[in-house]
Structure formats: C-alpha cells, structure tokens
Amino acid sequence: MARAVPNSVKARNTAIAWIIAILIFFPILWTILTSFKTEGAAIADPPVFLFFDWTMENYTTVQERSDYFGHFMNSVIISVGSTVLGLAIAIPAAWAMAFVPGRQTKNVLMWMLSTKMLPPVGVLVPIYLIFRDWGLLDTRVGLVIVLTLINLPIIVWMLYTYFREIPSDILEAARMDGATLQSEVIHVLLPMAVPGIASTLLLNIILAWNEAFWTLNLVAANAAPLTAFIASYSSPEGLFYAKLSAASTMAIAPILIMGWFSQKQLVRGLTFGAVK
Amino acid sequence: MTTTRALLGSAAGLGLAAGLATAATAAELTVATVNNGDMIRMQELSSRWEEETGNTINWVVLEENTLRQRVTQDIATGGGQFDVLTIGNYEVPIWAEQDWLAPLDNLPDDYNVDDILPSIREALSVDGTLYALPFYGESAMVMYRSDLAEEAGVEIPDSPTWSEIRTAAEAMTDTESGTYGICLRGKPGWGENMAFLTAMANSYGARWFDTDWQAQFDSEEWQATLTDYLEMMNEYGPPGAAANGFNENLSLFQQGKCGIWIDATVAASFVTDPEDSQVADGVEFAQFPNREGVDNHGNWLWSWNLAIPASSEQVDVATDFITWATSQEYTQMVAEDEGWRAAPPGTRTSLYENSDYQEAAPFAEMTLQSMNAVDTQSPSVQETPYTGAQFVAIPEFQGIGTAVGQQFSAALAGQVDASQALDNAQRSTQREIDRAGYTSN
Q1: What is the pLDDT of residues B117-149, one digit of tens each?
Q2: What are the two backbone dihedrals, phi and then psi, of residue B173, each rounded to the nearest 5 degrees?
Q3: Per residue in B264-284, pLDDT tens?
Q4: CA dihedral of residues A64, A70, A71, A74 (deg, nearest 10)
Q5: A237-257 tens-digit pLDDT
Q6: Which DSSP symbol is given to B305?
Q7: How many A-B residue pairs are in contact by the CB < 8 A criterion?
Q8: Is residue B222 pLDDT above 90, yes or no?
Q9: Alpha-carbon gap, residue A193 to A162, rounded angstroms
Q10: A21 Cα to chain B: minimum distance (Å)
Q11: Residue A27 is inside which H or E element, if any?
Q12: B345 phi, psi to nearest 5 deg
C-alpha cells in the first residue's frame, strides 16, 4: 500500500518542480520574447520582460533574408533519415544482444558506448577527408550517415535495455509455436516494444535535429539544416540579438511542438519497462 | 513575308543560341561570409551581379570563429566547398604562403588597385602580389561623449596620451548614475581582449617577441600596459567587464553608460546612428592613445576581404564577383541605395576624398587618419621578428593569443594578479613558440 503523503509535502514538491521547470525553460522563453523586440529593446539595461513594443519585424527580416523552408526540409530529412536508418540497424543488434548474448556482448556494448567518449573534433579531419573523396561533403546523404553512426550507440543501448525487460519466455513460446525469426521479431517482439522504440525514435530525432558540430562542419549551402540557419545570424560586430532570437525560435519551434505533443509517449518510454 | 519570317527565325535562333550560351556558361558560386551589416548589404545587392552575368551565388553565412574554423579546414584539406572566402588580413599572408589562395595578378584595368588604402594593400600582399581584395577595413580609435567630457571639465585632444585618457575617464565616471568612464574589451580571445591589449601594448612600446623569438611579457612595457589597463578598468570601468567584447561595449555605449570607448573604427557608424544609439548626437572621436614619448598609435588594422581558394574551379567567375563587390562602382551603388553613411569603410582612398561621404560620416577623417597611421611591417617601436598589427602574423597566434587572453581576462576578473598573469603568459607563450620551432630551444 502506498504511503500517504501529507498535502504540505505535496505542495512543497510541486513548488520545487515548478521552480526547476521555470529555470530550465527560462532561456527558451527569453529567446522567444527577445525575438519580438526591436534590437534596441533586446539590449536594454535593465532588461524589459513583457512591457515592450511587440514587433514581428525580426521574423519578416529573417524570412526575407534566408531560405527557412529549405533549411527546415534539410533538418527533417537528415533527422528522420538518420533515425530510421539507425533503428533499422539497432533493432536487430539490440535483439541479438538482449536475447542471444555471447561472452563478449557486455564488452561490445561498452565499446559502443566508449565511442561517445571521444570528442568529435578528434575525428573531424579524417571524416572530412573521407567525405571529400567520396563526394559526400554538403550532401544530405552524408549527414544522414554520420548522424546515424553518432547516435547508434545511444539507440542500441536504449533498445537493449528495453528488450532486456521483455521475458524471453514469450519469444520462446512463439518459437515453439513455429514462428520464424522474422515473424518472432515483427509479430511478437516489436508490438511489445512499441513504447520503447517510439521513445528511442523521438529522442533520436531531437538529438539529430539539434546536432550542430557535424552539421556545421560538413555542409556548405546545399544540405545546410536549421543549425546552420541559426549560426548565420550570430555576429561579433553588430547587434543582431533580436534577429538571432527570431531565427532560433523558428528553428526550435518544430521540435518543441513535436516534443510537446509526444511528451507522454516520451516519458512513458523512458521511465516504464516493456511489460509494466 | 518570307524575308520577315527568315529574319524572325534568325532572330529567334540567335536569341536561343545566346540563351543556350548563357546557360552553358552560367556558373554557381559558393561564397562563405560573416554576418554583419556590410556583408548583409552585399548579399542583397549581389542579385544585381547575378542578373548582369547570369551566374548565381549560394551564400554560406557563419559566425566569425565558426567560419574561420570551417574555411581553414576546407582549404587545408582541399575540400573545394567554396569559391569565395571572407577572411581577415591575419589569414591572407599566412594562407598565401601556403599556396592556398589564388593570386590576384590579373585584375581588370578599371578596378583601380592604386585606390586601395596603402596599409590595407600591403597587408593583403605577399611579395607584391595581392591575394585578397578588401571589402571593408578598420583601425581603432577613441570614441567619447562630448557632453560628459564638457560636464566633467576635461578635454580629449585629437591625439591623446594614455594619461589624458585616464584623467578623462576618472572625471567622467559617476557610478551612482551608472555612467562608467571607460569601456574596453575584457572577453578572452586572440581577436577579443588580445586585439585591444596587443594594440595598447604596441602603443606602450611593448612587443610580443624580441628578434630571437623570446617572449617579452616580463618587460617593463608589458607590465605597464597590463597594470594601467587593470587599474583603469577596475576603477572606472563597468562591472563584469571580463565578459565584455565589442557587442557588449557597443550596447553599453549606445545606452549612454560609457564615457569613453576605445575599439574598432567600424563602431563609429553604429554609435552615431540615431536609430539605435541614444547618444548619437554627442559622440566625438580621437586617435588611438599612446604612451608619452612612444610614437605608436596601436597599429590596429583589420579588414574583411574576399579571396579565392586555389582549389576553386571557377577562379575567373569568382574574380569577376570579388572585383565587382569591392569596386568603386559598388560603393556608389550602396550610397545611391542607402546613403553614404552605409558605404563600406576603410578600403579606398576615393571614399575619404568624397565630400558627400565626409558630410554624412563625421568619423571619416579620424578613421582615415587612424588607418594611415598603421604600419603592419613594424607593429612595435622596437624591432620585431614578426609582422602584424593587433596580432602577430604567425599561424600559432590564434592558440597563443587566446591562452594569454585568458590570463589577462582572469586578472581583470580578480582571479589572479597582474604579475601572476604576466608570468603565466610568459611561460605559456615561450613554451608554445619553442615547440613550434621558432627558437633553437
């Protein structure tokens, strides 16, 4: 039986949760508010919070000056493409590690994770040279490949952890009923793992959408996603904070909206097991 | 009728042929550039060049440091991603010596190379050959509020010394009303606080290295530079100055919170723009200060230039574009569209001889004077083994300069004292220069 929690404790915990949430969200809120200010109001000291002359001018300027839709489409293709490709590789890999583990499985998993410990800049030049020789610089295909490889360890780890919670007896029962490997994975494993796969998918799209190191270093004009769109409004000589904020708001809006509508799925997948 | 048809047919055929010829020769250039007012204007106006030539331009606009890293990586690996690069006068000689840039020795006759300011032209040339064309240039100068100076009863001469600047800063400071006597860069970085502090050190008679490439932070000149900088900033500067760069100080000055701001001359057009600046009417200018008895006004020279990587397969079209964008006709076009104030400054003598520009830009004369005072071949009054300006023109300077900048910024933030910062700068600089093979150690 669950322990009763006094109302005062509940209220305190709720207040703490709100404060933390506001602190985390405040920079995003400030960016959104700044995007509606004039450049003068954006640098005002003391800063103005809500009582300023709201303007859409920055959005108009950014739309006129840059091809937002082109960058947006590149972001969609790169993030969805790398996620789908990543899942296609990671689902069989995680299945094998979870249900048919070998003696080296743990080591392989650790090795995969260790690739995330290397600073990306350490492999930038070799990858740049490979991309140059293979004609992948400034292509969406190139970015899909590199983002797939970068996020693959996380996808495999998430799915592995999730698959481990599915009782192997269920899969064994399916096998005894004559299920082939293909139908065992497609008809038995995947339906049970949908929440886990969905949360992995969502998280990976968010990671790929926000990735800025590779997307800035491997593209020029053709495959530039929204991260490059934001970077083009940063200036060391001249005040463009309001326009930079407008560009940032336009870049994060799609992923923010997607995150808002899928938050239940995301939280459920990340916090609950497969059969709970 | 037959003749008319034949003529029409021929005309159509010729038109088609011309169209096909244009289509066949139309090129697509990829231009990497930074985001600032002049570059944005160039992007907008470049549609006219596209219409005239039938070529198209893909713009890659990035923040300065990101752009520098991105184009360095591409040019060093021969990636061939860009046809035109926007680079500074720091990179031009270094990259030219690596054969990374296409020499610009075949410019059209009407380009008028001799009109380019001598200091800029020299900075962009190696062995007499130009490797980049300047889009806009800047030196550094003093910008100050004449109303505050008058109220405080101080006068800043056209060519002030550091003692006079300090006296004026002290008199203008009124912390109760939030007015600080002086605003200077404090944010660490070779192009941030070290741009200013290297120029200040030049004007104090200091140098980074002696002729044997021995670091000179233990010299009296550097000690005086850093001590005076810290004292001025701690006593008359704004709080949190260790995080302030160009934009932060611009913002403070425009809001009337700084009495004196010493920074790039390009700032003059921002602080005198009534749309953005609350003090636009009362700004006066003076030359970069010097220490008494030292004939050196900082030697600050920066220009953003258009260069063509040697790996580009469209050198001719790229040359056509960069000559168009840096020509006198382009300046005229900007003036006609947006007024003379908006003309890209600091590259051509003819601009400063233009009476319309002189009238529209009250800072024109001091900008020209500051730029003409620069000698990139002798940045310090002492003999140096390097050329440069507010930087040392060696490839290692980005790393060395930033490491020293971090020490000096820490000193401004009160984390270390001046002597400790200078000791650390001396050690780290000598270590890196030894490692790079400049000395026999």
Answers
A1: 998 999 999 999 999 999 999 999 999 999 999
A2: -70, 130
A3: 999 998 899 888 889 999 999
A4: 180
A5: 777 889 999 999 999 999 989
A6: E
A7: 93
A8: yes
A9: 7
A10: 27
A11: helix A7-34
A12: -90, 170
Are A121 and B66 in contact by the 8 Å Cβ rule? The answer is: no
User: Any idea which residue has 């910062």 for tokens?
Assistant: B421
Of B35, B69, B78, the CB nearest to A235: B35
Q: What is the pLDDT of residues B21-35, one digit of tens each?
A: 444 468 999 999 988
ipTM score here?
Answer: 0.78
**Of the candidates A40, A65, A220, which has its C-beta nearest B81's C-beta?**
A220
DSSP output for B99-160:
T-B-------GGG-GGGB-HHHHHHTEETTEE--EEEEEE-EEEEEEHHHHHHHT----SS-
Q: Which of B232, B310, B297, B307 is nearest to B265 (CA)?
A: B297
Identify which of A157, A149, A162 has the alpha carbon closest to the alpha carbon of residue A120: A149
Task: Tell me the sheet residues that pair with B33.
Answer: B61
What is the spatial distance between Cα B72 and Cα B407, in angstroms, rounded to a whole number? Answer: 26
CA B295 to chain centre: 22
Q: Does A40 touch chain B (CB under 8 A)?
A: yes
Q: How far is CA B106 from CA A108, B113, B134, B350, B361, in A?
A: 59, 11, 16, 22, 33
How many other β-carbons are positioned within 10 Å of the β-carbon of residue A190?
A: 14
Residues linked to residue B215 through DSSP beta bridges, in sequence order: B209
A35: which DSSP letter?
T
Q: What are the chain B neighbours of A217 within 8 Å (beta carbons)?
A: 69-70, 73
> Could you tell me which of A125, A74, A80, A82 has the C-alpha nearest to residue A227?
A74
Residues B297, B201: Cα–Cα separation, whole Å = 10
Residue A183, CA distances (Å) to A171, A174, A189, A246 in order: 10, 9, 9, 49
Going by C-beta distance under 8 Å and a sequence separation of 6 or more, which residues neighbour residue B236? B166, B169, B170, B172, B173, B180, B181, B182
Please give the Cα distance from B364 to B425 (Å, whole number). 37
Whether A270 has its CB under 8 Å from any CB of chain B: the answer is: no
Question: Does the distance separating the beta carbons of A137 and B81 come in below 8 Å?
Answer: yes
**Length of chain B, in residues:** 441
Name the DSSP class of A66.
S
pTM for this prediction = 0.83
Minimal C-alpha gap between B214 and chain A (Å) = 31
Tokens of B116: 């380019």
Contact B62 A128 (CB under 8 A): no
Q: What percent of chain B has pLDDT over 70?
A: 94
Pair of tokens at residue B160: 């002030």
Q: At which residue do the structure tokens 């009362």 appear?
A: B282
- If you compute the radius of gyration of chain B from its CA atoms, what whole number of angstroms results? 24
Within 13 Å of residue B331, how many CA atoms lie on the same side as its CB?
A: 25
A234: closest chain B residue by CA: B63
Q: What residues contact A9, with CB distance under 8 A and at least 6 apart?
A: none
Residue A202, helix vs strand vs coil: helix
- Cα-Cα-Cα-Cα dihedral sign, residues B427, B432, B433, B437: positive
Confidence of residue B14 (pLDDT cuts 50, 70, 90): very low
Rounded-to-10 torsion of CA B237, B242, B246, B247: -100
Strands B283-287, B140-145: pairing is antiparallel
Q: Give B106's pLDDT tier (boundaries 50, 70, 90).
A: confident
The residue among B16 and B279 whose pLDDT is bigger is: B279
> Which of B360, B337, B431 has its CA nearest to residue B40?
B337
